[in-house]
Amino acid sequence: MILVTGGTGLVGFHLLLQLSLEKEAIRAIYRSEKKLQHVKNLFQKENKLAEFEKIDWVQADILDIPALETAFTDVSYVYHCAAKVSFDPKDEDKLYQNNIVGTANVVNISLSTTVKKLCYVSSISALGNGTEHNLILNEETERNNEAVRSDYSISKFGAEMEVWRGFQEGLDVVIVNPGVIFGNGFPKEGSSLFIQNIKEGQSFYTLGKLGIVAVEDVVKAMTTLMKSTISGERFILVAEDVTYKELFDRIADCLASSASATKVKKPKYLVKKWQTQTASVLEFVFAKLFFRKRMLTKSTINSLYNLEIHDTSKIKKTIDFEFLDMKVYLKELIEKR
């Protein structure tokens, strides 16, 4: 049996959609009935309601060991997609608990049961650091622990350490490090907020870069790696490194050409780093006074001006992998909204 944690998230949903086409039994973990109903609706839109019903849905939490142990009964392969995503410093403990402790629980139970192989969905934020003379990152780039890092980045790196521990103790593992994942089905979460913000008239941009990838490519890489004999390896999954300006312009063009939003304009005001840093001070005061979540932390500001690019030759060579064209993909994605 295959077990998927985080079955009601973007990667989890698309992974289950793909796995449901295969013959092996599937079990998926969910936490809330509301999210489960949302995924059920997505399966129905894909005319796959019968496949949804075949999945053994188990309500559990990766921090609830007894419930997790029940979910692992007779499981041979695990896709660990569950994670907490936040860049608010107030969520440091939640990130540690969900991403590091939760992953440790998944690894420990995998080691003590019938699990043969584990695939962990990490992030490019867990990778090493570029330098002034080399901005190209690969799977072996060293991580500078003195660099400014978000709590999310630290938690994903810590989770990877738990997976590597499992590998050292005899568990077959693979790790994927995707960039910002785009995909349909979750219009108010994650990367979809880029599209929503441009649609609502965002006028500012920076010239930093970010790695982007389609969720279908993430799922394809994960399932291919799990079916292979590959173990003890991590793989960067980035289809393209693009500046925020280029991404926002593409999104605006796609929205403008769609029937639903013909008046969308491209962002036109370049924001320099010092301006963002000034705004972060004001935001800090505002957040303290009104108990709001912070967005402009040191780590998020650095990411807005980051110029690192990602070497994806490893995944391409190892499993003969080709990424989808993100220009075409974004256009098709926005047309589906």
From TrEMBL:
InterPro entries listed in its UniProt record: Epimerase_deHydtase, NAD(P)-bd_dom_sf, NAD(P)-dependent_oxidoreduct
GO molecular function, one term: aldehyde dehydrogenase (NAD+) activity
Domain of life: Bacteria
GO cellular component, one term: cytoplasm
Location of the NAD-dependent epimerase/dehydratase domain: 2-228
Pfam families noted in UniProt: Epimerase (PF01370)
Gene3D superfamilies from the UniProt entry: NAD(P)-binding Rossmann-like Domain
Record-given protein name: Nucleoside-diphosphate-sugar epimerase
